[in-house]
Amino acid sequence: MFSKTSEYAIKIMIYLSAYSDKNNLRQVKEISDSLESPEAFTAKILQQLAKVGLLYSMKGKNGGFTVGREVNNIKIYDIVIAIDGEKSVSACILGLNECSTENPCPLHHKYYKIKALIKENILEANLDDLKNKLKYLKLR
């Protein structure tokens, strides 16, 4: 459902939400090791998330990353949009440029309902909900 990059971004954000304190910064290597993600790939995602304000970053020897705002105010939607853009959640299922209620593709009316459910039940979930329910990530 999400791009690989978005999937890793979500994992990164959940991981960092366990350390949601500006005095508790996490370095790229630690994050990539914990999530078993390539370090350069992780660094790129971290920079992208920091650029849009979802993460706070500090450079230097004691630098690193942490969440940029309250974890209950960061939704999966925010992360996916930061990585893949608005079109990733609003695009036509058939990939057509012209697809709307007024000019629907053959699957528009069926998929529109599914997209609404995905938005309501998945994209609106916040990091606080997720971090408390996930056990498979190595958080410490």
Strand order of the largest sheet: 1-2
Based on DSSP secondary structure assignment, what is the total number of beta strands?
Answer: 2
Largest sheet: 2 strands, antiparallel
Q: Give the overall silhouette.
A: elongated
Q: Which percent range fits the helix content?
A: 40-55%
Mean pLDDT: 88
Q: What's the assembly state of these chains? A: single chain
Q: What is the H-and-E element order?
A: HHHEEHHHH
Number of helices: 7
**Radius of gyration of CA atoms, rounded to a whole number:** 17 Å
Q: What is the straight-line distance between the termini? A: 28 Å
Unreliable runs: none
Structural class: mainly alpha
**Strand composition percent:** 5-15%
What does this protein look like?
With 140 residues, the chain is mainly alpha-helical. 51% of the residues lie in helices and 6% in strands. It has seven helices and two strands, in the order H-H-H-E-E-H-H-H-H. A hairpin with a 5-residue loop joins strand 1 and strand 2. Helix 1 packs across helix 7 and helix 2 packs across helix 3. The longest helix is centred in the last third of the chain and has 16 residues. It starts with a helix and ends in a 7-residue tail after the last helix.
